[in-house]
Amino acid sequence: MINIQDPWRTDYYERPDAPPPPGGRKYLLARLLAFLFEARTYRGAAGFISVSERYLSNLAKRYPWFHSKPQETIRFGASAMDFEFIRHHPPASVRLPRQPGEIHLLYTGAAGPIMPHALNMLFSGFQYYRVIRPAGAARFRFHFIGTSYVPPGQGKPSVLPAAEQYGLASWVEETPHRIGHLESLALLQQADALILLGSSDLAYSPSKLYPYYLSGKPILSVVFENSYLEGLLRELACSWLVPFSPAGTKDAVYTRLTAFFDHAVNGFPVDGQPVRNDEFFKRAYLAETLTRQQSRLFEQALAPT
Fold first, then answer.
1. Nearest to residue 205, comparing CAs of 91, 55, 101, 81?
2. Residue 50, C-beta contacts closer than 8 angstroms, at least 6 positions apart
3. Residue 210, C-beta contacts closer than 8 angstroms, at least 6 positions apart
4. Positions in the chain whose pLDDT score sits under 70
5. Which pTM value belongs to this model?
6. How far apart, in whole angstroms, are the C-alpha atoms of residue 239 and residue 250?
7. So what's the pLDDT on residue 142?
8. What CATH class does 82-280 carry?
9. Ranges of each domain in the chain
């Protein structure tokens, strides 16, 4: 059984406007190995789990035999028990620094080079907000935690350089190293709102979406138009959605971002929040539901052919 959380063989870095591939010769070697071994490895698998149905459909287009394999789109999920645990055992090691009147927006997980378009939209939109609402903008603080895969004390910021281009370094705090899962959940509970950014890989399905949802916090999502993530967010109806196209104008993006920032300054009144699709979330994204789906797929893969 193969679990596809990201595509093995991909043309992502060959697409227009894609960032330079990381790793130099290592990337070229990895790309060659994917080209040589993907087909034979996948053909020998009993079945497939993927977080994105687009990954499975792309493989079906590439390999005629792929349709015959047991397969299921089983997205990342979340457990309400994790939040219950941190309510009774809050980690003492993580705190968002806070001054009276501040509004803290939090993003957790990898960022920077993998989502430059969304970062630029967010920061340019906030730069615009600073001009038209300077007093309101002064209250915001943006936190980006765990933006790379390095251990504590190592790694370079990948979000701060983008913030500096827009004169926002004083508003943005970045911690490149990863923190633990429970520590991350504790920070979600401390934030006033959460940030979700879309990748230029339109099939991107972020695992952070589901604990974000369970946190109950307001969510600001800056995502590509017609992306898989946009579809998920529309299904869940849990987020202040700001879709964009790199080739489009920024007027509509700025209007949506300004409305969200105004909403935050006003204390996130309930009548301005989206009506979340809780029943759908329980059916499709709770950990116990997804575990049942995986068990059924395992039984299907084990069935004699």
1. 55
2. 3, 4, 5, 56, 71, 72, 73, 74
3. 75, 76, 77, 78, 285
4. 17, 305
5. 0.80
6. 20
7. 97
8. alpha beta
9. 2-77+286-302, 82-280
